[in-house]
Amino acid sequence: MDTKRHWENVYTTKAPDAVSWYRRHLETSLALIERATDAREASIIDVGGGESTLVDDLLIRGCKNVTMLDVSQTAIEITKKRLGLTAEQVRWLIGDIVEIELQPQAYDLWHDRAVFHFLTTSERRLAYVRQVTRAVKPGGHVIISTFGPEGPTKCSGLEVMRYDAESLHGEFGGRYRLVESSHDLHQTPFGTTQQFLYCYCRLD
Ligand SMILES: C[S@@+](CC[C@H](N)C(=O)[O-])C[C@H]1O[C@@H](n2cnc3c(N)ncnc32)[C@H](O)[C@@H]1O
Fold it and tell me: Which residue, among 48, 78, 83, has the nearest Cα to 63 in the 3D structure?
């Protein structure tokens, strides 16, 4: 099954809080975003935002320039519906992050929780990094969260990669300076835990 079909199937068959990655609020992401930038003024893209409430929380904090991208149109429609009229304040993009054409140097901050780890071929990882390097402004902020070394080997039935800070930073290369990294023990709605890694890098 291709990427889009897989995720459309997930979001048409499961409730927002019935997926392993569900969290009421992405507190670690929010704290990092607020530490990295003046989030209200920054141009922020959430890649593979799915049905997460990060976009709601950014709008509540007064962020004026938020883009949400996902390969699943269903996830975007459900998120828009939840937001109601405030959805109009967000730019919505539907597409595969490896293939979609993004505006060059459009974003001050790139956020990805649990998307990069689905890229299991070096070609797709390279294409992703090229996208970030092109779309983020020089000096911009890149926050990527993947499963950590002790995280699961699969998510949503798909094989995933697991990273420590060094190996994740290594995928991005010399133009990225690792500012900080941390582990997050995510409690799934099913009562299990998953180790996530967060890396915050700055582009040259
Ligand atoms: C595990 S979910 C995480 C959702 C959200 N970031 C969160 O933390 O709650 C992965 C999300 O990435 C999206 N996704 C997966 N592969 C993608 C790709 N290649 N391009 C864009 N979105 C993708 C899926 O549709 C899904 O919404």
Answer: 83
